[in-house]
């Protein structure tokens, strides 16, 4: 008698196609909320379609693109079982890079990699991405959910995304526009945003042994709630500012910190001098510094220290710019100025001590 054998299958290897299909169905309603009139078709095609004839109103349209993820912040979401905010972080990291050159965000795609597809969990991640796209003014035109059993644990996941925007050639922002005497305007961050979490997790969770559920008096909430605070999305605020005031450049303060990111948009012959005394970083930055005995310079090159975006504007545009940002609910202030570069100065530096 021949013994019956069972052949190998995708499901036996750990990939659940039906669960993936279920996740797509659950996310459709959220993706629909991001649609712009230029988007053709719906979710489920092999490619997202965007009607490029909408760009005919531009004389010389430049397409701007960016791709990014949210780093090890996803580990905090996994530990807490909170999945509907991490998408805001993803959109911010991609679209706020795009708006730096003055480009209007158009559309975005996402990539979600999981150890095991939990449909409701994947849908919650996409919900957050869709909400972020609405805040950035762009459409979510497609994406991919990949199941990687054996490489990732059943509850492990990672997210990444790519976006596209457009800017008129003669309205392109950047170093070429910056002049001596320009003012540097800082826009407050909502917290840590999505950078430096390897340091933060090492210091607070591993070394200090703190719990994500622990109430932290100086934070006014639990550590987990603070660490999961979504990255602020500045895209529409920046675009509105360019329509109201003259803007020479923006700088998105992400990995590398304030000085390094601001230096990326300052021309070689000039220098951005930023005064720390013009603001007080939030309590979370002090907590990380003290708990890990992290030196200030190390903190500043890793974390945003309370500033998520910076704008460089002519001195005569400062009042109009600050008023425009205030009208949109953006906390902003003059943090420095553009000066001649000395023999030993870098593209930007921080001076003074933080306000208390």
What can be said about this structure in brief?
Helices cover 32% and strands 24% of the residues. By secondary structure, the protein is α+β, with helices and mostly antiparallel strands.
Fold and architecture overview:
The protein is an alpha+beta fold. The chain has two domains: 15-40 and 57-171, 60s Ribosomal Protein L30, Chain: A; 175-351, PurM-like C-terminal domain (Phosphoribosyl-aminoimidazole Synthetase, Chain A, domain 2, Alpha-Beta Complex). 32% of the residues lie in helices and 24% in strands. The chain has eleven helices and 14 strands. GO terms for molecular function: ATP binding; phosphoribosylamine-glycine ligase activity; phosphoribosylformylglycinamidine cyclo-ligase activity. It is found in: Cytoplasm.
List keywords for this structure.
356 residues, Phosphoribosyl-aminoimidazole Synthetase, Chain A, domain 2, alpha+beta, four-stranded mixed sheet, 60s Ribosomal Protein L30, Chain: A
Distance between the termini: 84 Å
Examine the secondary-structure arrangement and name the CATH architecture of the largest domain.
Alpha-Beta Complex
Query: Helix proportion of residues, in percent?
Result: 25-40%
CATH topology of the largest domain: Phosphoribosyl-aminoimidazole Synthetase, Chain A, domain 2
**What is the overall number of helices?**
11
Order of helices and strands: HEEEHHEHEEEHEEHHEHEHHEHEE
> Mind telling me the CATH superfamily name of the largest domain?
PurM-like C-terminal domain
Cα-atom Rg, whole angstroms? Answer: 22 Å
Strand content: 15-25%
Strand runs, count:
14
Number of domains: 2
CA-based shape: globular
The structural class is alpha+beta
Order of strands across the widest beta sheet?
Answer: 10-12-7-13-11-14
CATH C-level of the largest domain: Alpha Beta
